[in-house]
Amino acid sequence: MEKFKILGKTLEHHGRIVDFYTYDMLVPNGNHTRWDVIEHKGAAAIVPVDEEGNIILVRQYRGAIDDLLLEIPAGGRDSVDEDFAVCAARELEEEIGYRSDEIHHLVDYHSAAAYTSEKIAIYYTEKLIPSKQHLDENEFVQIERYPLSKLVDMIADGEITDGKTVAAIMAYKVLRNK
Fold first, then answer.
1. CB neighbours of residue 44 within 10 Å
2. Whole-prediction pTM
């Protein structure tokens, strides 16, 4: 397939978390068009597995859908230069109050490549060390623990709909079944 070419980018809105651009594009048939693109610094997430084999998740409010979601701990990178594993380790401690010296890469996930550059690097750890939870001032979460098999059932039943969590749980299941 012929390449698409970005001819220019116009910043429409600079936000705290994302920037909204209009891309001027040259498409393979020679036409010029404009695309809406959300640029994101990227994020990291982690599947934390406790000593009993349960996976620790957080239930939190998501304003864009006006609902609570059950998710693995995750958060945005502080900068485009921050190492994804460092971000995952930070979110592990911030959201659920554990740290780990053994974090392993699991899978990368593009949340909605049609309109955002966001990439979420997903990790897992089976070696949790109790620490202290320290949520952001306006962050509220409920910690929940489930065995892997229950989470797979919850995904199949539509109880878990967060994309990064679905991808992470299924990738972890494949890893465990090898």
1. 29
2. 0.92
